[in-house]
Amino acid sequence: MLTKRPDRLSALIQRFRVEAKMQTMAVRDVPDDSGPRRAPNLFVVGRDRLQILRDGLPSFDCEGPMVVFFPRGAPPDLEIRSDDPASDYVCASVDTGGDANPIALALPDAVAVTLNEAHSLQAVTDLLLDEALSPRCGGSAVIDRLCEILVIRLLRHLIEGDEAKVGLIAGLAHPNLSLAIVAIHDRPNKTWRLEDLAGLAAMSRTHFANTFRDVVGVTPGEYLSNWRLTLARMEIAKGTSVKVAAKKVGFASAASLSRAFSRRFGRSPRNEFARLYQSKSA
Length: 282
Known about the structure:
Elements (H helix, E strand, L loop, with lengths): L9 H6 L3 E5 L7 E2 L2 E2 L5 E4 L3 E6 L2 E7 L2 E4 L9 E4 L6 E7 L6 H5 L4 E4 L4 H15 L5 H23 L6 H6 L3 H10 L7 H7 L4 H12 L3 H18 L4 H8 L4 H12 L3 H13 L1
Antiparallel strand pairs: 1-9, 2-3, 4-7, 4-9, 5-6, 5-8, 7-10
Helix pairs in contact: 3-4, 7-8, 9-10, 9-11, 10-11
């Protein structure tokens, strides 16, 4: 009997919404009438040859269909070169929730996938390029949504491809550890014990703890604490009180959250909220 695999992405996507906006290479991180604009960090290349260059770092020489994604934002010195000015490629700025998103932090600085080897991605990119090269009513909105779908499918491809050796992607790709990680993501406020998580992973406590550390790079307790603090930081940014945030994410009290928060981020939750409020008001 086949066991259904857990949904390893939905809890993350619900917390850290993927938002995309089609851009041109002329766009940089400067404000306009509609607010800040971000440099493109997602590139979908069609049949033509395209070079994506980064000063002092390996470049991507794209021949044929390919997706290149910079999860934490495009390098400031990014440059595109093409033999044909009419090359069929699309670029977009994609926000996956900023520095708080653990899956974006777990990815390498740049991800490149040849579409001939990833048919689930090519099904989306074919539609995307068709919309971009044959403009129609509502095309911009369609392209933005397709870029968001593409990034989600790209994350799925990386997890299912089992390419990462250490980190969250590797943990989500692991058939046993993923069960415990998804449970942590879904129910951060539960009083998780090591034996509970090991039981979900169908492993002994010792084997689970050692495997989790080797694959994810931190202990189960550290991962749980980091996830709770990440969620608490998001709650505090929305104006949620420390007491309510502590209860929502699984800390025993506001005081225990404040202590852990200060150790992790170097400032108290109160100072964090003041910092975020000032940056939004500037």
